[in-house]
Amino acid sequence: ECFNIEVGVYLVDSFLDAGLAAFHPETQLEIYENPGYNPDHPPLGRIALGVANRLVREFSSEDSKGAYFVSAARLASAFEFGLLVLLIGLYSRRWFGSHVSCYSTLAVMCMPRLFGHAHLASLEMCTCLTYTAFVLVLANSWKTTAKAQPTATRAFVPGVLLGLVLLTKIHAILLIPVVVIWGLWNWRLRSLIPVIALFLLAFATFFIGWPWLWI
After folding, report:
1. What is the rounded distance in angstroms from the CA atom of residue 160 to the CA atom of residue 163?
2. What is the model's pTM?
3. CA neighbours closer than 13 Å in the CB half-sphere of residue 27
4. How many whole angstroms separate alpha carbon 173 and alpha carbon 175?
5. How confident is the model at residue 66 (pLDDT cuts 50, 70, 90)?
6. φ and ψ at residue 35, rounded to 5 degrees
């Protein structure tokens, strides 16, 4: 836990110290070029841990002399778990009705591994949230009905979401062959342009969101 929290705290503190200048590309490069930054994982999940730590420290009466509180950073995973349950509940209700929505949300909440990770300051819950959000939004945007065929325009939101999955953990690249096979199975060659647009948006989001790649 501490390994990921330390990087998240460094990034959040660096952004806050820089103020509005943090949005400047040169400042971003300075932050990510610092030897104190460990680039073994993309930054999104770690930033979430750093934000949770910062918020709890701001509003907590406990001694804040230390660099971080492990228990404070765990709040990020708990919040992400709540968003995951909400997403599954909303989409299952839209597709299958309220009864299925109740059962599916209860099933997710009672999964031991997910429930356990929701209490740890790790990247897994952020990965699960962004991964699930991408799959649900893509399945809802691209349908076999005539009015919801895949288009480059309909690839925008799913593409950005796939970029966020990549910004949490690189293994999101395993989604690419799944999307390609699913697109070709349902829409044959008509899916090629939307799929290419989706991947271009994803990698653009990934590249822009992780300035360490610019170096």
Report:
1. 5
2. 0.91
3. 12
4. 5
5. low
6. -60, -20
